[in-house]
Amino acid sequence: MANFEELSKYVIAGNQAKVKELTQGLVNEGVAPLDIINQGLIAGMTIVGARFKNGEMFVPEVLMAAKSMGAGIELVKPLIAAEDMPSIGKVLLGTVKGDLHDIGKNLVGMMLESGGFTVINVGIDISPEQFVKYIKEHNPDVLAMSALLTTTMLHMKDTIELMREEGLRDKVKVIVGGAPISQDFADEVGADGFAPDAASAVDLCKKLLS
Ligand code: B1M
């Protein structure tokens, strides 16, 4: 019987060894990889987010929790890739300039890969100029930008404007996401779509490329 609650508990505690052990146990039991991620690993990180917000947890603890979640995801990731299909499109993925948050972005990347996309994850703190450079280099079907800060989300607009200036906007679909992003914001900055979570990002990319 899968014990997601215990897994979440060790994510919150930032106990990498236990997270790995329990994740492997669930894998051995034959629990679906996405259930392990959503009901165990992400569920734990969601509680961490709430506690951080309330001042009940502090940055070092949050980082430990994030690392533990990442360790669990690393174990499950190859199993999702194994169910993979041939690539149905190329997505260039990054977190915008000034923003170092990458947990959600990496989840989006993982989900996209498991949904059959080729993902080029260019990392964090990516300026509009760097995004444009990577687009020219990799020729993606979709640019996916993540932002977690209200102060950095405006760089999505700058990036889209620079793409337009460089004649790239019509060639590449743009999707945006992250905790402070909304559909209204996506419309305002001229993105093709907004996804509230990683699973929706996969559906959105499929819809935009169909
Ligand atoms: Co930061 N942080 N943080 N932080 N951090 C938030 C975002 C914050 C809401 C916490 C708070 O105050 N309540 C707040 C932002 C406030 C705001 O702007 N409105 C905040 C702040 C203020 C800061 C600092 C400024 C703190 C400081 O130093 N004073 C600083 C900024 C650093 C920087 O980026 N320049 C900072 C630093 C950090 C850490 C380094 C400690 C760490 C990041 C570690 C890392 O990413 N490697 C961290 C963390 C972990 C958080 C919280 C606690 C958790 C974020 C997270 O990973 N969530 C967060 C509070 C919270 O969210 N409740 C907080 C789990 C993750 C799975 O969710 O990223 O939302 P999320 O991704 C979701 C969706 O949003 C969506 O899919 C994912 C789930 O399916 N999604 C997309 C994300 N990207 C998408 C892209 C898409 C589609 C969907 O398409 C392209």
Architecture blueprint of SSEs:
Layout: H1 4-12, H2 16-29, H3 33-53, H4 59-82, E1 90-96, H5 103-114, E2 118-126, H6 128-138, E3 142-146, H7 155-165, E4 173-177, H8 183-189, E5 193-194, H9 198-209
Parallel strand pairs: 1-2, 1-3, 3-4, 4-5
CO-5-methoxybenzimidazolylcobamide (B1M) binds at residues 42, 45, 49, 52-53, 59, 62-63, 66, 98-105, 107-108, 144-146, 148-150, 175-180, 195, 197-198, 201.
Domain B12-binding: 88-210
Keywords: Cobalt, Metal-binding, Methyltransferase, Transferase
Pfam families: B12-binding, B12-binding_2
State the shape.
globular
Oligomer: single chain
Alpha-carbon Rg, integer: 17 Å
> DSSP helix count?
9
Uncertain segments: none
Name of the CATH architecture of the largest domain:
3-Layer(aba) Sandwich
Strand elements, count: 5
C-alpha termini separation: 39 Å
Q: What number is the mean pLDDT?
A: 91
The CATH topology assignment of the largest domain is Rossmann fold
Which sequence of strands runs across the widest sheet? 2-1-3-4-5
Taking the sheet with the most strands, its summary is: 5 strands, parallel
CATH top-level class of the largest domain = Alpha Beta
What molecules are bound to this protein?
Answer: CO-5-methoxybenzimidazolylcobamide
Organism: Formimonas warabiya
Protein name: Methyltransferase
Domain B12-binding: 88-210
Pfam families: B12-binding, B12-binding_2
